[in-house]
Amino acid sequence: MRKMSVLAAALLTASLALAGCGAGGDSRADSQAKSAAGGRAADGAVSDRQGAGPAAGGRAPAGKVTGQEQGDKVPAVTHVIRTARLAVEVKNATKALATARSVALGAGGLVEKESTERVDDNYTSTTVVLRVPQESYDRVLRELAGTGKLLSRTADAKDVTDKVVDVDSRVASQRVSVARVRELMDRATKLSDVVTLEGELSRRQADLESLLAQQSSLKDRTTLATVTLDLTEPPVEEKDGSDDDPTFADALGGGWDALVATLRWITVAIGAVAPFAAVLAVLYLLWRIVRAQLRRRTAPATAPAPATAPAAGGQEGPRAQD
Question: Reduced to 3 states, what is the DSSP secondary structure of residue 158?
Fold first, then answer.
């Protein structure tokens, strides 16, 4: 019995000690929480005073950097669409085009489109559209301008950072929206709910695909700059030979040209007169035929016998026998 009483007393003492420790821990935790809250409040007040200090003309303590200054030091990612157009006069457009291709491919770009036209058989004009990385944009422009005589140059840079950020945010939200609708479809038990959710899912997926297309287009235009290069050859100047003295060959060539031109005009005249001559010949032939027929009709049926001359010596010739 004495052992049981001693054991019970020991258990009671231990439980009281544990209760006291728990109470002490809770009180210490409460006091620490209150002190932390007070410290945060004091820090907030200090920060408010520091924020108001510069606005009032004061200066921040030395060795400390405000949050605004830290944000200014962080470099922001910008997205810029760069386009340029160059007009260059070159001696040989074909060689200059090959040089432009090698420059673009060497910079890691590509040839998007090209067209060549020969104007009046005197000179060639070529237009080529190049896509080059943004980091090689300035170097490519310098090399292309050095292929010949630079006639004109225009460049444009458009900052689309806000649009890129907006499209990226909308793409992320739309993906979450599509995933949510798919979860609802997995939980749906009624056919009407499934049909409604399928229509909603189709609409949201279409919106997501449109946003993804915009995102891809912006990424392509901000990653690769567009350079349009116009290559033209100088027109060939025709030599004026009016001051040169004519030679025998020039005279012979001129006479031959005159002869050929004369024969050509004679042939043309004959060809023009031939139809009229043919009609006149037919009419003349008809007139001759008609005239011959008329003469035959008007001629006497029998011609008169010729008279006999008197015989010599006054004798009459033999009479005609009856």
Answer: strand
